[in-house]
Design a protein that fits this description.
The structure holds 2 protein chains of 2 kinds. By secondary structure, chain A is α/β, with parallel strands linked by helices. Chain A has 2 domains: 43-181 and 345-399, 3-Layer(aba) Sandwich (D-Maltodextrin-Binding Protein, domain 2), CATH 3.40.190.10; 183-343 and 416-462, Periplasmic binding protein-like II (D-Maltodextrin-Binding Protein, domain 2). Chain A has helices at 17-28, 70-86, 99-111, 125-133, 141-147, 149-152, 155-159, 191-196, 205-217, 232-245, 249-255, 265-280, 292-300, 314-321, 357-368, 370-378, 388-391, 398-411, 426-439, 444-472, and strands spanning 59-65, 90-96, 118-120, 162-163, 174-175, 182-190, 223-224, 306-310, 325-328, 340-344, 348-350, 415-416. In chain A, strands 6, 7, 8, 9, 10 and 12 form a 6-stranded mixed β-sheet that branches. In chain A, strands 2-1-3-11 form a 4-stranded mixed β-sheet, sandwiched between helices. Chain A has a two-stranded antiparallel sheet with strand order 4-5. Chain A starts with 16 loop residues before the first helix and ends with a helix. Chain B is mainly α. Chain B has helices at 2-21, 31-56, 73-80, 82-115, 121-133, 136-146, 152-159, 176-202, 205-213, 218-229, 231-246, 250-255, 267-276, 281-307; strands at residues 59-60, 68-69. The chains are: A alpha/beta, B mainly alpha.
């Protein structure tokens, strides 16, 4: 749960060519291929008993995180203070940055000689897999055994933080991080807009799609949507694709590189639906030119009956809309389990050059333990696993629905990872192609073909790299 | 030994003699000593990184693991890969909006303003120059909301009955690039105008009087007196705007992130994206070096062509 866009983010940050070039030039200062930073193998993580940080002497734990938004920031500050109180010999030195800033500086920090002890590294090929491949993160499997992390989290979520031993595959192999929070794409609705059009909140997918023409006829905008930032369409498309596929399994396997690919009926149906929504005016006109934040603001102002986006938006929408805000996971086809796009917050990882991996592991355990989950819940953040506080929530509020939905999705194994995890270049090609689908210039068949092509090319490349790594190292 | 000492003595004398023979004010080698501090800073923070970037452009590097030698591969891709060529084509289109249009508009306005007395000239000059003072980020955010589907521009078009023309300016495949270009025109015109107005004040009144006595009209007067008089300013304005057009990053980043599709991706944005988001540092460096070369070549052409051999 990480802000209007986490993977996505691409929130506009100030920057200029000059800044970019300067940073590039700084990056260049360590001439690649001459220092041995890439050669360090996976180290550390050889503990045999549950570490006791209180016996570690005076320790300063440097932590880089991106929990800068309201509830997240409050939660992590509370947890850090509690951790320091629990182990008075440990000082947590926190460096907080926005998602984008962290993503951009982490690479440089990790390649230096004095990296932070604990970092939040994004899932996917360009971040966690690349860092693991370069030997910059500590595999956590021995700690996972000691602390019982493997049973604390649902396997499908834990897998998102795994990287294969040869450092090429994602979603399988060694564990490199733990996530605190859950997040998924759901449907927000405006109760008063629905009431005005005489429509009840939908309980099945058919009711939902049936409501759209009725809303249009009643003079309301059915689905608020803005895609100028390029990533929102990936989320909407993901929901449509998961619905069309009927279950999370096949698409998830493909995203993690083990499936048949994207050239199938579900992909084409989803693209057709998205294009039809745009054409019939269920989405605002010119959605490709409207910002994500603008769309959310207009939804909060009562323009639009539905808004399809992530759970991270709940806190910001609840403030202005109050009780008229409703939330649900995408309602399933009658008789089917719920499915949607979703995953977990940025994982917390331990760097391989950390001097205190045991203390860091205790910190990770503390951040994702039962007590921490209660703290997150109290601050309005959705934790991966629920504690006492979550059970006390009023299940009829939007927040309560978000929690119930998360539980149901996990029970039904209904989470499809973000589609842009598929290949390093997938975000760019898919977001560009979906803008084409919305404007009508890219047909469903072409989209499916392009997605399949990207997938196949990357698989080939990966297989080649995997063989190299197997022979050469 | 003695011979060597004599030799040395002779050399010192010869050197001293050479300096003594110089006319006063003629450059001397000691001048380099004066620029040394600046040169050191320049070298350390510009030339050295530039060399590093050139070196990186010859490698395949993801920013983390061991780099592999690429040779000219990255540069060859620039020529063959349409994904990498397109940004340069977009930059060429932006040149029109960032450099040609503002200079033309600036000249036109200058010609008009020097011919007629305008009340509150200082006020207009300030207003027209204002975009230059604003941070590009602010400009980008403001224009993003003006060009939004339900933004100011579409509202205005609707109000005068031109609903047919309204569109999602930044979200339309064909109009996104010109829309970004128009923002550039808006920003750069003020700069050109202020430069030209300052230059026009230096043109001797007598030339205008002479032209008028000879019966020149407004057009003739512009081409024979104003334009030649503004040669140096046009050169400066073109150089500044051409550079602004080619290194354009912030506006694209703020308004469209290169979209829709890749319709507005420009070289500087592509450098940033490749280096920091997709981990293709070698390719990004090759693009950066090429961009530097293009900017250098274009500014050289501008100075040569516009300033001419008069200097």
């Amino acid at each position: 749960m990480t802000g209007p866009g986490r993977r996505s983010a691409r929130t506009r940050r100030f920057g200029g060519t000059l800044g970019a070039l300067c940073a590039l030039l700084l990056a260049a200062a360590c001439v690649p291929g001459t220092d041995g930073s890439g050669a360090a193998g996976p180290g550390g993580g050889a503990a045999t008993a549950v570490p006791d940080p209180s016996k570690a002497g005076k320790v300063t734990l440097t932590v880089w995180d991106q929990q800068v938004r309201g509830g997240q920031n409050a939660a992590i500050e509370r947890l850090n203070a509690e951790f320091e109180r629990k182990y008075p010999n440990v000082t947590v030195k926190r460096v907080a940055r926005s998602f984008n800033d962290l993503k951009k500086t982490l690479k440089l920090a990790l390649s230096g000689d004095n990296p932070p002890d604990v970092v939040q590294a994004n899932q996917g090929y360009s971040d966690m897999v690349a860092f693991a491949h370069a030997g910059m993160l500590t595999p956590l499997d021995s700690y996972a055994g000691l602390y019982g992390w493997n049973t604390r989290f649902p396997q499908t979520l834990l897998n998102l933080n795994r990287v294969s031993a040869d450092g090429t595959r994602f979603g399988t192999g060694q564990l490199y991080g733990l996530s605190q929070e859950g997040e998924y794409i759901g449907i927000y609705y405006n109760k008063s807009v629905l009431k005005k059009a005489g429509i009840r909140p939908p309980r099945t997918w058919d009711e939902f799609t049936g409501a759209l023409p009725k809303l249009k006829k009643a003079g309301q905008l059915p689905v608020q949507f803005g895609n100028l930032d390029k990533y929102p369409a990936i989320h909407t498309f993901g929901v449509l694709q998961a619905q069309a596929a009927g279950s999370a399994g096949p698409v998830r396997e493909t995203v993690l590189g083990r499936g048949a690919g994207f050239d199938n009926e579900a992909t084409r149906t989803a693209a057709r639906t998205l294009a039809a929504w745009a054409e019939k005016g269920y989405l605002p006109k010119g959605a490709n030119g409207k910002g994500y934040d603008d769309a959310a603001k207009q939804f909060a102002d009562g323009k639009g009956a539905f808004l399809i986006t992530g759970t991270w938006q709940l806190a910001d929408l609840r403030k202005p809309m109050g009780d008229s805000l409703g939330f649900m996971p995408p309602p399933p086809t009658a008789g089917r389990p719920p499915v949607t796009t979703g995953g977990e917050g940025l994982p917390w990882s331990i760097t391989s050059k950390s001097d205190h991996p045991d203390v860091a592991a205790a910190y990770l355990d503390f951040l994702t333990g039962a007590h921490a989950c209660d703290v997150l819940t109290e601050e309005g953040v959705l934790p991966v696993v629920f504690g006492k506080a979550a059970r006390k929530l009023d299940r009829d509020t939007a927040v309560g629905r978000m929690f119930t939905g998360w539980q149901r999705l996990n029970e039904a194994d209904g989470l499809v990872p973000y589609l842009d995890y598929t290949t390093p270049g997938f975000y760019d090609s898919l977001s560009a192609d979906l803008q084409g689908v919305l404007s009508g210039s890219t047909g469903p068949g072409r989209l499916a073909g392009r997605m399949q092509q990207q997938y196949d090319d990357f698989r080939k490349q990966q297989d080649a790299a995997g063989t190299d790594a197997g022979d050469g190292r | 030994m003695r011979a060597a000492a004599q030799d040395r003595g002779g050399m010192v004398r010869r050197l001293a003699g050479r300096y003594r023979k110089r006319a006063p004010g003629e450059p001397r080698a000691v001048g380099y000593l004066y620029i040394l501090p600046a040169l050191a800073v320049f070298g350390l923070f510009l030339l050295w990184p530039l060399g590093q970037t050139a070196w990186l452009s010859l490698l395949h590097w993801d920013g983390l693991t061991r780099a592999t030698w690429a040779g000219w591969d990255n540069y060859r891709d620039l020529l063959t890969d349409p994904q990498l060529r397109a940004p340069f084509a977009h930059a060429a289109v932006l040149l029109l909006f960032y450099a040609v249009l503002p200079v033309a508009a600036g000249l036109l306005l200058t010609a008009a303003l020097t011919r007629f007395r305008v009340r509150g000239m200082t006020f207009f000059r300030t207003v027209l120059f204002l975009p230059q003072v604003l941070a590009m980020v602010v400009v980008g955010v403001a224009w993003r909301s003006i060009l939004a589907p339900d933004g100011l521009l579409n509202d205005a078009l609707g109000a005068v009955g031109l609903d047919g023309l309204t569109r999602s300016w930044l979200g339309d495949d064909r109009f996104a690039l010109p829309a970004v270009g128009v923002i550039g025109t808006w920003v750069e015109t003020g700069l050109c105008l202020v430069l030209f107005l300052a230059g026009a004040q230096r043109i001797p009144r007598e030339l205008y009087e002479a032209a008028r006595i000879d019966g020149a009209g407004a057009v003739r007067e512009f081409f024979t007196v104003t334009l030649p008089g503004l040669r140096a300013e046009v050169s400066v304005a073109l150089t500044l705007t051409v550079v602004a057009a080619l290194r354009n990053f912030d506006l694209v980043y703020i308004t469209t992130s290169g979209g829709p599709g890749n319709a507005t991706s420009v070289p500087a944005y592509e450098v940033y994206r490749r280096a920091f988001e997709t981990g293709e540092v070698g390719s990004a460096s090759a693009m950066g070096i090429t961009l530097t070369a293009v900017i250098f070549a274009l500014t050289l052409v501008v100075t040569r062509l516009v300033e001419g051999r008069s200097r």
